[in-house]
Amino acid sequence: MKQIRSEPMAGRTVLVTGGTGGIGRATAMSLATMGAHLAITGRDRERTQGAAREISAAGDGQVDIFVADLSSQTEVRRLVDEVLQTCPRIDVLVNNVGGYWNTRHITPDGFEHTFALNHLAPFLLTNLLLDRLTQSAPARVVTVSSNAHTTGKIDFDDLQGEQSYTGSRAYSQSKLANLLFTYELARRLQSNDVTANALHPGVVNTSFGAEDPGSLQRLIIPFSRPFLKTPEQGAATSIHLASSPDLEQATGHYFANSKPKRSSKRSYDEATAARLWQVSTDLVGLIATA
Length: 290
Prior knowledge:
Layout: E1 13-16, H1 22-33, E2 37-42, H2 45-58, E3 64-67, H3 73-86, E4 92-95, H4 113-135, E5 139-144, H5 167-188, E6 194-200, H6 215-224, H7 231-243, E7 253-256, E8 259-260, H8 270-284
Parallel strand pairs: 1-2, 1-4, 2-3, 4-5, 5-6, 6-7
Antiparallel strand pairs: 7-8
Helix pairs in contact: 1-2, 1-7, 3-4, 4-5, 5-8
């Protein structure tokens, strides 16, 4: 007797940034098995095509691929143009891409790399895709943050780490920015039937931070790998937020282990969120809206 597949995401299009490896690819693979049409982004075309073949094999259809370095605002805007031409609808946007750099790097736009990739990229991408998400509503925006946000602080006098930089401080600030952005987005979308939630994936065994690791990372990671989550385990909360019918109306929340959780006190500061939104709007060259 032929087994009938359950496809709770059939007919839905999901865009996963950083879908070529780690948590992003595991997220895309699982959503494909649920019947979703997947679109993924990656920096390297060959690697992105390889991931797409695996994701396609897990599901039943073609996977749309987009090659872009999201730390560049020019490439984010080009990506958006390509996505809008290719995807008639976007039911779920998973802002998954992110990174850690122990030393300070500057993007082609002149921004500190961690802040640019981890915060400005999802901020710009989401805003430029909001009309398509709204047209596809009910739709969802899922942003991968981190428990590292608890030690983060938004330093408006030194957002780019020009005066003082450590990899951990820049990363924690960017992950707090993810939450402030998510909560502010949820407030702004209350009447749009588009939800916005964020999550902590757990500590996962991936190549995260491998391009420029800190000395502590180099020392600890080899010994801790057996105790870390697999990418599939790390993707579980992203998958839950993207697909659970129970969360259709849930918005403005932070999740860990697929359950809502209180984030840090600073993450709920609405004045800081509004200011960060305005500063980010100016930095990426968007037209401010109320």
